[in-house]
Write a structure and sequence with these properties.
Number of strands: 4
Distance between the termini: 34 Å
Structural class: mainly alpha
Strand order of the largest sheet: 1-2
Shape: globular
Strand content: under 5%
Number of helices: 9
Order of helices and strands: HHHHEEHEEHHHH
Largest sheet: 2 strands, antiparallel
Length: 202
């Protein structure tokens, strides 16, 4: 299989994964009803770095490439924000440019907005290419054996039974895991942060 064919296969599999995630979100909306507070312009989940997979990185970079072609000025702003965050995350003691511990960064910079977020308008510049975490945050979810709570803004006043009744499993067949397994070995298990994914080498 050629590299072009491999890329086409990966993108087709990713599109199917995103369809499954979208269907699960529709089910979450149905189950949660008024308890789901997620709305356009709400950016509570757009603050604080978090780990993303190699598949998320590939998707984000495709989105950034598309934004460069569509609106170079907006793309440059995203890159500038990402570069600024990379410098912040690396700090004074990381002259070698190696990524520091992601867990430490997530703890220290929990209030920093995502570099893809246009803060004034509350708009994600790469919304169609956002990571899976962004697509599933809000309702209570189950990822493998892990049970994740809902967003603090959702399910206000709901009972534990109502929360559990609304819990969804966004990727029950682990389609993401299968796609990652087909990526080159150097990528498949590597996690990073959105800022590092969107900032060219600096």
């Amino acid at each position: 299989m050629t590299l072009r064919q491999q890329n086409a296969r990966e993108r087709a599999a990713d599109r199917e994964l995103l369809r499954v995630i979208e269907d699960s979100w529709s089910e979450a909306e149905r189950r949660a009803g008024p308890y789901l507070a997620c709305r356009p312009g709400c950016t509570a989940c757009c603050h604080g770095p978090f780990p993303i997979s190699a598949l998320d990185v590939r998707r984000l970079r495709r989105g950034l490439d598309g934004l460069v072609r569509k609106d170079p000025e907006r793309a440059a702003e995203v890159v500038a924000r990402a570069r600024g965050q990379v410098r912040l995350f690396l700090g004074e003691n990381s002259e070698d440019g190696q990524e520091p511990d992601s867990e430490e960064i997530c703890e220290r910079f929990g209030e920093i907005p995502c570099p893809a977020l246009e803060v004034a308008g509350g708009r994600c510049e790469l919304y169609a290419h956002r990571p899976l975490t962004c697509r599933t945050f809000g309702p209570p979810t189950r990822i493998g054996p892990e049970r994740l709570p809902p967003c603090d803004l959702c399910f206000v006043g709901a009972s534990e039974a109502e929360i559990e009744a609304a819990r969804i499993e966004p990727d029950p067949e682990d389609r993401e895991g299968r796609i990652l397994a087909d990526l080159p070995e150097r990528e498949r298990d590597r996690e990073t942060l959105i800022a590092f994914a969107l900032a060219p080498e600096i």
